[in-house]
Design a protein that fits this description.
With 178 residues, the chain is an alpha+beta fold. It has one domain. It is 31% helix and 29% strand. The protein is built from five helices and eight strands, in the order αβαβαββββαββα. Strand 3 and strand 4 form a beta hairpin. Helix 3 crosses helix 5. It starts with 5 loop residues before the first helix and ends with a helix.
Length: 178
């Protein structure tokens, strides 16, 4: 019988429980990536009315979840370039922080994963997966298997990010569209 030193067993247990959190972008860095031509950003809280929350739930097929949303408008001089909405969804066990940038017509310009805290599924940060959202609106194509491909091993992350983006797209359609 072969014996392993106790330190090896304890170290192995610690490695198995290691957190896999990765911070990819701060909110300010995401703003600069999503709207590189912007000369200023103006943050505000978007307050949804009860009627707007009901409209979001109907359009997105999922509840609006909150009446208050943190948004940032991107400007080039006095011209509004678009809006960014910051959100978090649960992956399998941990939160995923992300941002969605919208054009003024409420179509998706870009999504960015800001922080990923799960041990599996980080592939949702891949540019090719995130590009599937570009140009889409709450009107359609924002469902896993219905315009957004799943990633094997990241099913919950894909589903929850897609649901979150669909919810935010409905908010953009109802409360942000210019």
């Amino acid at each position: 019988m072969r014996y392993l030193p106790l330190t090896s067993i304890v170290l192995g247990a610690c490695v198995a429980n290691t957190a896999f959190a990765t911070q990819y972008l701060s909110q300010e860095q995401a703003q600069a990536v999503m709207f590189p031509d912007a000369t200023s950003f103006k943050a505000q809280t978007l307050q949804l009315t009860l009627e707007q929350m009901q409209q979001v739930a109907t359009l997105a097929g999922i509840p609006a979840r909150s009446v208050a949303w943190r948004i940032v408008h991107a400007y080039k001089a006095e011209q509004l370039l678009g809006t960014i909405v910051f959100d978090e969804v649960i992956g399998k066990f941990e939160l995923i922080s992300y941002a969605v940038a919208f054009q003024n017509d409420a179509s998706i310009k870009q999504i960015e994963i800001l922080a990923y805290r799960e041990s599996h599924g980080f592939e949702i940060r891949n540019a090719n997966w995130r590009k599937q959202f570009v140009g889409k609106t709450a009107a359609g194509g924002l469902g896993v298997g219905q315009g957004i491909a799943n990633i094997s091993g990241a099913t919950l992350s894909c589903t929850h990010i897609t649901d979150g983006v669909r919810r935010i797209s409905a908010i953009a359609q109802i409360a942000l569209k210019k």
